[in-house]
Specification:
Layout: H1 28-31, E1 46-49, H2 55-65, H3 71-77, E2 82-83, E3 90-94, E4 101-103, E5 119-122
Length: 123
């Protein structure tokens, strides 16, 4: 999947929590990566393709662009990812195959043409 051009800016009222030093801290409630957060090591019981854009779809697209199924699979290998404070979108991920960093903009990157390729997993 390619990286799309940002179209619309999406602001949400949810902000990821910050540590005492001001660093971003991941939280499954704040990130909204998948419709229901699963336990580490567990397999999803259901998969559904995205039909409409939402913040959950955006983060799922970003994890899948880096080669991971979702945040649960990502956190089995790497520490919790960074998130944009203003939007709650994933900011930086490590690519599954190479370990190189992949950076994302603060605005929407999952264009409508990629919606059908984005999968949402339920636990």
């Amino acid at each position: 999947m390619g990286m799309g051009i940002a179209g619309n800016s999406m602001n949400t009222s949810e902000n990821p929590p910050r540590s005492s030093q001001g660093k971003l801290v991941a939280s499954s409630a704040a990130t909204g990566t998948q419709p229901s957060a699963g336990k580490a090591g567990g397999k999803p019981s259901k998969m559904q393709r995205a039909k409409q854009w939402s913040p959950e779809v955006e983060n799922a697209y970003r994890f899948q662009s880096a080669g991971f199924r979702d945040q649960v699979e990502y956190e089995e290998t790497y520490p919790a990812p960074e998130f944009w404070e203003e939007t709650g979108f994933v900011r930086q991920l490590s690519v599954k195959t190479t370990g190189f960093f992949m950076y994302f903009r603060q605005t929407r990157e999952c264009e409508d043409k990629y919606l059908g390729k984005t999968k949402l997993y339920f636990y």
